[in-house]
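Quick one: structure for this chain?
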Amino acid sequence: MQKSAIDRHPEPSMLAWLRLVRIANWPSAISNILAAALVANGTWTPISQLITLLAISLCLFSAGMVLNDWYDYKLDEVERPHRPIPSGSISRNQAVFLAITLIVSALLLSLWLDWRLASEQRSSMLTTCIAATTAALIVGYDVLWKRTVIAPILMGLCRAGNFCLGASAIENKFPTAAGLPWPVLILAATLAVYVTGITLIAKRESSERLTGSIVVGQLLAMVAFVSYFLLPTWQKIVDVAFGLKNQVAFQYLIVWTAVVFTYHALKMFTAKGANKSIQKLVVTGLKGIIVLDTALALGFGNGSIQFACLVIALYPISVLLSRLRPLT
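Got it. Here's what it folds into:
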C-alpha cells in the first residue's frame, strides 16, 4: 500500500496532457516535415500547405504516443508509475478518446489538403494515402504487434511515413516514384532503419545489462547513419543539391553528430550499470534525428543556410522540453 501511495502523484491537468503526447519529441517530428519539403523542392512555400502538413504530422505523432501509454499502462504501473495514466492524472478512456480524435483530425486535414490541391493538378490523394497508411502503422504497432519481433520495424516505418508526409503536398524538382521524389523515398527508408535501431535499444532501456537487441539496435542505427551519406545514390543527391561551401559545412555537422552519438555508445558499453547509459543513448538517438534533418536542410535549401538554422533551432527546444517532460 505504501508503494502505491508513493507511486501515484497526479500532475496538474495541462502538464499531464503535454507529457502524454510527448511534447518533448514534437521537434523531431517537425524537423522531418521541414527537411522532406526542402528535399522535394528546396523551399517551404506555399507556407499554408506546410503548416497543414505540420498539423497532420503532430496529430498522428501525438496519437501514437497516447496509444503507446494506453496499451502499456500495466507495465508502466511497475516501471514508469509517474506517467499520466498509471499516476491517475488521466484515465485510459480519456487517453483512447484523445488518440481517436487526433487520428480522425489528421485524416480530415489530409482530405481537406488534397481537395485544395485537386485544382492544381494534384488529385492523387497522396497526402491522405500517406496519412492513412501511417495511422494504420501506428495502430498496428501500439495495439496489435507491440510485443512482437516486427514492432521496431513498424516504428521505423511510422517515422518514414512522417518524413514522406512532408513531401506529399509539395511540388518537387526530382523524378518521382509512387508520387514522391526518389531522394525522399531513399532518405525515408534510411531513416526507417535508423529508427528501427533506436527502437530496439529503447525496448531495453529499463535493463540493467546489455542484451543482444541493444547491440543489434546500435549497429542498425550506426549503419543507417553512415548509409545516409555513403549510398551511391546519395552521392548523386549531393551532386545535384550541394554547393561547395554548404557541402563543407554539411560534413562538419555530420562529424559532430557522429562524435556525440559514438560517445554515448562507448559510454554505454563501458558503464558498470547499463541502465542510465542506455537511456541516454536513446535520447541522443532521438535528438540526432533533428541534426540529420538539419544536414538535409543545409544541402537542399537552395543554397541558403537560413533553412538549416531554423531546423537546428528545434534542437535546443527539444533539450529544454526534455528537461520538463521526458522524451521516452
